[in-house]
Design brief:
By secondary structure, the chain is mainly α. It has one domain. The chain has three helices and two strands, in the order E-E-H-H-H. It has helices at 11-33, 40-47, 51-59; strands spanning 5-6, 9-10. Strands 1-2 form a two-stranded antiparallel ribbon. A hairpin with a 2-residue loop joins strand 1 and strand 2 (9-10). Helix 1 (11-33) crosses helix 2 (40-47). It is elongated, with a radius of gyration of 13 Å. The N and C termini lie close together (12 Å).
Length: 67
């Protein structure tokens, strides 16, 4: 990750926030509707995260730093 700051946050800060939103979305969906209702699309929509950002988080945040 580079040290570029965007909207007052470093890439590491943005990645951490994205992870937290995804974690909350996944727990919320699974807790309310069961794991059968959990899809990538639903989790991303609820967390306000693109599937590209999700992939970046899963492989180490390489896409989020570009935003």
């Amino acid at each position: 990750m580079n040290g570029r700051v965007y909207a007052g946050q470093t890439a590491a800060d943005r990645e951490a926030a994205c992870r937290a939103r995804l974690r909350e979305a996944i727990h919320g969906i699974a807790g309310s509707n069961g794991y059968a209702a959990l899809t990538v699309e639903r989790a991303c929509a609820r967390a306000n995260v693109s599937s590209t950002d999700l992939a970046g988080v899963l492989i180490g945040g390489h896409r989020i730093e570009d935003r």
